[in-house]
Design goal:
Two copies of one chain form a homodimer.
Chain A (H helix, E strand, L loop, with lengths): L2 E7 L4 H16 L13 H9 L2 H8 L3 E6 L11 H21 L4 E3 L15 H10 L5 E3 L19 H10 L3 E3 L11 H18 L3 H4 L5 E3 L10 H10 L5 H5 L3 E4 L5 H10 L5 E2 L11 E2 L4 E2 L3 H7 L4 H15 L3 H11 L1
Parallel strand pairs in A: 1-2, 2-3, 4-5, 5-6, 6-7, 7-8
Antiparallel strand pairs in A: 9-10
């Protein structure tokens, strides 16, 4: 089985966009928000939005299952206040749940959280619990910078995050570290902001005892870990200079990297410096980069093609494709059984 | 000749630190600043600070010349106002000039600029001009985020930067993109902040016509280009999706990457995806990472050892070691002749 652990619903029905625009405008102007009941998204529309997109690419590329969450750039935690963020998160998560119900063999849910700048992360625990216990989700996306580009939240090793981590551990779900759309004109959402947040969080945890205090906490750092594998020597050296443990012992029981790296040399580096047990297959397809690489004739984000070319054993590739995801997402296998039974 | 294009004076005489501490405290408390005349740094102290450090490593590692600038993390553009930044920059640049006068065959100067948050970059043109025309410097370090970690300056493609770029072109000097010490608790100066600024600026220029408008402008992106080479496919794909020219044509006449990447796999990736004409040898020695890699038995930052292992021709290595630096730093060869004649 080939599990793509990083997919966002980027082809949502049009009325969702209309609702969000009205909700955003109402939050900015402090006028009445649109009614949730006004949202019109039929099952047929959802099917249409996926059949020619994610599902088509799953079939073409030979992947089986996508761990699927709301559009990351759309989370927009900096828009409006906590109540706006909560309503928007519930709507987006419910929509992912409908996708998983329509295609239980193709998608399994991960939620966005109702984070908001300056609001304690623990306030997201209720929505996380709802998504996991009621909707069958297996993880969450956790935003280290709800400001949308100014990096003014406490580091993810600050104790304000701990109650949410306790809930994640209780529910046996990991988080993917993922910022949302960037409103800072100095940074580009998918070109620099995403990667910079990934690198930032990795360094935050190097400097902390986070995983000593929370040995069951699991972070997936997407986009191949930002700049981390390319600078693996730098991070190893920084840790050593600070008399910290070797990074494998210090972090790699708890930190995992996905394979959203859109060229073969990058994938080769990733597989060379990061232990195979810490790599999870992912493509973030229909995401940041949608075109075909003229050098290969294939989509930049068809990451399976790169993995296929790596000189790894079949067993190691199976870990990257499936085994590691089943380990990291503790609820995945049971939820899959449930969804397959429902299919 | 082996030219290390990225060295900072990180072993300065102790009194410089005392002065800066007093200057910082005075700026914070709005009290009288220390007198510049109070600074006591003898030639012998400067010699001592280098003989057992940069010069020793140059000899041991077999490099010849370091393009040398003030300590990057010490620039501290967010400390005090523009006048504080100017005095500090002048002091630091004058000190680099003394180093180059004492060791004209080993060091050539690059200046820090008196940037300050919210102050137009053009205000740095006078100090740049002084350093180049009076002190014989061949480049400058340009900080894309004078806030020290909040990324709230306009992108480097904003027209507010243009007068400074015009001055750089007039003087025939490139800049190295380099932030300073991070005062944002979410980011670590050398672990994430430096790399993130590098990646941010690369993406800023992708989105612009900067080098069409300033074809003679040259940026050196240090630390191997941050996350850029590891995500080269992502950047190529983003540019293509936006109907921008191929990155080689769009940027690589003007953008250069240094080799401050502290492990062999990273160096191999850099040399594989970035054209050899765009790579400049550098180590940033006695910088971010000072220890010995137990896996190799050599210093992490002894980057020459990695370059030696790359499967590149002697001609290509000579470009990385020397030829490219002479091209990018337009005044380098003439200034070197002058300094060698003075030796």
């Amino acid at each position: 089985m080939i599990i793509d652990c990083h997919g966002h619903y980027t082809t949502e029905p049009a009325d969702l966009k209309r609702f969000r625009q009205e909700q955003t405008k109402a939050a900015q102007n402090k006028t009445a928000p649109p009614l949730r009941a006004s949202l019109k998204m039929s099952d047929d529309e959802i099917r249409d939005s996926l059949e020619c997109a994610q599902l088509k690419l799953q079939r073409e590329r030979g992947t089986d299952l996508t761990i699927f969450s709301p559009r990351a750039s759309g989370m927009g935690h900096h828009i409006g206040d906590e109540s706006v963020s909560l309503e928007w998160s519930q709507i987006c998560n419910d929509l992912i749940h409908r996708v998983c119900a329509l295609y239980p063999q193709n998608f399994i849910g991960v939620c966005q959280l109702p984070q908001s700048p300056g609001v304690p992360p623990k306030n997201s625990a209720a929505e996380l619990t709802r998504c996991v216990t009621e909707l069958g989700f297996v993880g969450c996306n956790l935003n280290p910078d709800p400001s949308g580009g100014y990096f003014n939240a406490p580091p993810m090793t600050d104790k304000s995050w701990f109650p949410l981590y306790e809930k994640m551990i209780e529910l046996d779900v990991p988080c993917m570290i993922h910022v949302s759309g960037c409103c800072n004109p100095a940074m580009h959402t998918t070109g620099s902001y995403y990667l910079n947040a990934d690198t930032m969080v990795f360094m935050q945890v190097i400097l902390s005892d986070l995983f000593k205090n929370f040995p069951k906490l699991k972070f997936i750092i997407p986009h191949g870990g930002g700049a981390v594998p390319f600078h693996w020597g730098r991070f190893r050296g920084l840790a050593q200079d600070m008399k910290l443990p070797d990074l494998r012992a210090h972090l790699l029981k708890n930190i995992f990297f996905d394979t959203c790296v859109y060229h073969l040399p990058g994938q080769e580096l990733l597989a060379r410096v990061i232990p195979v047990d810490n790599i999870l297959f992912a493509s973030e397809m229909i995401g940041a980069v949608r075109g075909i690489d003229p050098e290969t004739g294939h989509h930049f984000d068809d990451t399976k093609r790169y993995i296929e070319q790596l000189s790894l054993s079949t067993e190691d590739k199976a870990k990257i494709y499936e085994g590691n995801a089943r380990q990291v997402y503790g609820r995945l296998s049971a939820q899959l059984d449930k969804q397959f039974a429902a299919a």
